[in-house]
Amino acid sequence: MIPSYYEFINSVKILSGKNALENIPRELRSFNAEKPILLTDKMLVKIGLAQTVIDACGESEVVIRALYDDIPPDSSVKVVNEITRIYHEMECDSVIAVGGGSVIDTAKGVCACISQGTDDLLDYMGVEILGRRTVPFIVVPTTAGTGSEVTGVAVIANPDKNVKMEFVSPNVLPDAAILDVRMTESLPPRLTASTGMDALVHAVEAYTCIQKNPLSDAYAFSAINLIRQYLPRAVEDGRDSEARLAMANASLLAGVAFSNSMVGIVHAMGHACGGVSRAPHGDCMAILLPYGMEYNFSAVSEYYAELLLALAGAEVYAHTPASERARKSIDTVREMTENYNKICGLPTRLSEVGIKKDDLPKIARAAINDGAIIVNPVEASESDVLGILEKVF
Amino acid sequence: MILWFLGRGFQAAAYVDEYVKDEIRRWEDGTTIVIGVSPYGPYMSVRKQGTRLRFLGNVNTPDADIIIMFNNIEAALLILTGQIGIDKAYAEHRFSIKGDLCSVGMPMVRCLYIVESYLFPSFITKKILKRLPERSSCKFTVYFHTIFGV
Predict the structure, then answer these.
(1) Neighbours of B125 (CB within 10 A)
(2) What is the dihedral of CA A232, A236, A240, A241, to 10 degrees?
């Protein structure tokens, strides 16, 4: 179905493959930039991934002018404001983010502050408020799941109010995303599965939310195809470069898809689980996906039926009667989760990720206040969400 | 005129509907919402005062907690005359929202669904709402308080 109106944007240049990192100086040069601040976290410095990026800029005119590695797992507006101050003090001229969702979202916030000429990001909280970005911005993702390198969203915590704030704007998109397998090959199997399932949820929700459109569908479908083929290989053998690169691309494709069609109830609940109980995002996504699909079944079974081809492959699709394909898609997702549970211990219940039964009402309340719920194909009240959470607990 | 009707309707629903009252009870006193058309208006503002929501008139309040600006008058008319729902308008990038989505923005959207269900005839609400919200009052009461105030 063609929407009566839609918008789509992906302005990010993609550099994917062997030695992609070595092209960072060329990318910066194209913006007349050579004094970047490199944002990362302490773990990535410790395991040498930050150094790999610095080395890749080695024989060039690019000099990493400042390195900030004190970014916490939940990016915060205070950190964003502090980095902005350092950026100006050190007279940097560009931003490189090396990390997962938190580092990348922090970097998006920093670029927004620099571009808007503000020292407080809170002034720009909301949807489609930010003006154009003026600082060159390159992202090197170190997980294959968040897709943050191509999404027009930054989620940044406000520790004073204990809330996560959303900044939704195409102006937080970076100039370039570098996909290099050296960045993800050291991810352990459990984290590989968890982040891979996160990418799967992005794609499934992007394909079924009310903001879907033909372009986001194409990205989502391709992402699921790659995840079906390569996630098992990446989990089994982290040194499988082809599988790692395919998963990095799957994550990116799913990111483009959901940046343009948004995500729904699974993410609303997942964000709330993270906010209330500090439960790992990817784990929550894997746990909640089949239940979210069940909830939305009546409205989007037609789309689930289409997705069976990508989720299970041509053979299964061809051998499944048309009337059973939608249900088979949910069964396939459930089998995937259970399979990764056996292989690497991916959890299948919320009680396994540190969530307490008493937290569920708070999570339900937080979920209906999450922006993702607005584009979910089925309306969800607090009691509806609580019902799902109790079922999956 | 339509924004006046929406603002007064919101004020009325907050006075008589239990769900809207409960949502607004959670907001900090003084919480202010502006809905307008970009770039020069018109606007309407409402503010929480005590347990009630007060319609401030067809005025802009630049330091409001939530500012919803329709991209243009065509977008505003599509939504305010019930041709498309708030969720579809969001999906189609018909407006921008400045402010904290979680603590005020999303609760306000849920309240607006209920306000729409009072103000619009049911053939429109069936078309623009994914599910008809439960109402604790009747349309006549909300219309009465919309026109004559609370």
Answers:
(1) 18
(2) 50
CB contact under 8 A, A375 and B96: no
**Pairwise CA distance, residues A252 & A259, whole Å:** 10
In whole angstroms, give the CA distance from residue A104 to residue A118: 19
For A357-371, the DSSP string reads: GGGHHHHHHHHHTSG
> How high is the pLDDT of residue B106?
94
Question: What domain range includes position B105?
Answer: 2-144
Residue type, A250: A
Q: Residues of B with CB below 8 A from A377's CB?
A: 130
Closest partner residue to B101 (CB to CB) among A166, A210, A375 is A166
Give the Cα separation of A1 and A297 in Å (integer).
17
B106:A211 CB<8 A: no
B115-126 per-position pLDDT tens digit: 999 999 999 999
Q: Residue ranges of chain A with pLDDT lower than 50? A: none
- CATH H superfamily, domain A189-392: Dehydroquinate synthase-like - alpha domain (1.20.1090.10)
pLDDT at residue A216, as a whole number: 97
pLDDT at A162: 64
Q: How many domains does chain B have?
A: 1
Residue B42 falls within a domain, yes or no?
A: yes
Please report whether residue B53 resides in a domain. yes
Question: Degrees (nearest 5) of the Cα angle A348, A350, A355?
Answer: 150
Domain A13-183 -> CATH class: alpha beta
CATH of the domain at B128: 3.30.1050.10
Summarize pLDDT for A212-259 with one digit per residue, the tens.
999 999 999 999 999 999 999 999 999 999 999 999 999 999 999 999
- Is A189-392 in the same CATH topology as A13-183? no
Residue range A314-346, pLDDT digits in tens: 999 999 999 999 999 999 999 999 999 999 999
**pLDDT computed for residue B119 by the predictor:** 94
Tell me how crowded residue A38 is: count the other CB atoms within 10 A of its CB. Answer: 24
The residues on B that touch A, with CB distances below 8 Å, are: 67, 86-88, 90-93, 96-103, 105-107, 109-110, 129-131
